[in-house]
Amino acid sequence: MVADGELTSGSAIGEFEDALAEFLAVPHAVATSSGTDALIIALRAVGVSHGDEVIMPANSFAATENAVWACGATPVLVDIDPVRHTLDPALVETAITPRTRAILPVHLYGRFADVPGLAEIARRHGLGLVEDACQAIGVTGVGQHSDAAALSFNPYKNFGLTGKAGAVVTRDAEVGVSARRFAYHGFDPERKNVKEDAFGLNAKIDNSTAAVALGLLPRLTLNSYRRAFLAKRYLDALEELAADGTAVLPAFTPDHAWHLFGVQVAAGREARDAIQARMRTADAVETDIYYPVLTHRQQTPLHRKHFAHVALPLTEQVHARVLHLPLHNNLSLSEQDRVIEALHAAFRATAH
Ligand SMILES: Cc1ncc(COP(=O)(O)O)c(C=O)c1O
C-alpha cells in the first residue's frame, strides 16, 4: 500500500464499506474520516441547513451539537425517557416547530434509543431522522429505522481503529449518494474533480485506515460479547447496592453495546463526587463522568443565548448521579474485581 502510494484513496475503502454494510445489514455505507464528519454529512444528506432546528438530547459528546451548528442549524434540546435515558419521543413531538428539520437521537453509552418511536413521529411530521450511533456499533437496529446513522471508529470506541474514522450507513440510496459526495468536496464519484454539489468536506476515510478496519471487523462480535460479559459481571457484583437502593444500575438488555458502564449514586451529586474521590485516593481506581457539562450548561456566549432558560429535569438528575466505571475490550477480570472492591469500599465509606 505504501509502495503503491495508496494511502488516502484505494481499493480498501470500497471493500470495507461493503463489509460494514453487510455486517450491519444496511445497504449503503460511506466510510468517513471521523464520527463527527459522519454526523455533519448525514445531517446535510437529509437536508439540514442554515436556519433549521434539530431536536437532540443534552447529554452527549460535543460532536453531536457541533455537527448541528456546522450545518448552520440550531440544536433544540429535549429531555430523556425514564427507562432508556435517551431522547423521549413524546417530548420530541411537543418540541417540533415549523423550523424543525430533523431529529437526532444519541444511543448514549451504547443503549439504543427508541428509534422506531421517533421514526413514527418523523414520518408524520415530514422530518429527517439521523442516529448518532457513534457509541452503538453492534446493536441490532442501528440504521434500520432511520434515514441515516453515524458511526465512530476512533480508538476509544467499541470498534476502535488506529486513528480517527467513522461512517454513515443508510437504507436510502439517495442519502447514500449525497453522503458520498459530501464526504469528498461535493465531487461526482465518477468524474475526477468535477463538483455535483456546492457543499463538500475532505472527510473520506483514508485507504490505510480502511485496510486496518477490514482486518479488525471480524473481531467486533467477539469484543461486543466481551463487553456484555463484563457489564453482566459488574451488574452481578453490584446487585446488593441496587437492592438496598443506594445505587441504580443499568438494565441488562440486548439493545446495548456497553460502550460505557454507568452507576447512578442515588444520594446525588455530592455523594457521587465523594465516591469518585475516595476510589481515586484510597484505591487508585480512576472513574469518569460522561459528559462533565451538559450542552445547555456550557458557558459560551452562543450556549447562554440559546439555552439559558432550558430545564431538562431527568437529564439533569441522571447526570448529577452517574459515575462511569472502567469498561473496555482489554479489561482483565482482576482489574475489574479491583474496581468492584473499590466501589463497594467507597459506598461504605461515604454512607456515614
Ligand atoms: C456520542 C458521540 N457522538 C459523536 C462522536 C464523534 O466521533 P469522532 O470522535 O469519531 O469524531 C463521539 C465520539 O467521540 C461520540 O461518543
UniProtKB/TrEMBL annotation:
Pfam families cross-referenced by the UniProt entry: DegT_DnrJ_EryC1
InterPro entries named among the record's database cross-references: DegT/StrS_aminotransferase, PyrdxlP-dep_Trfase, PyrdxlP-dep_Trfase_major, PyrdxlP-dep_Trfase_small
Gene3D superfamilies (alphabetical): Aspartate Aminotransferase, domain 1 (3.90.1150.10), Type I PLP-dependent aspartate aminotransferase-like (Major domain) (3.40.640.10)
Keywords: Aminotransferase, Pyridoxal phosphate, Transferase
Listed GO biological process terms: polysaccharide biosynthetic process
Molecular function terms, GO-annotated: pyridoxal phosphate binding; transaminase activity
Membership in a protein family: Belongs to the DegT/DnrJ/EryC1 family.
Protein name: Putative aminotransferase
Species the sequence originates in: Streptomyces avermitilis
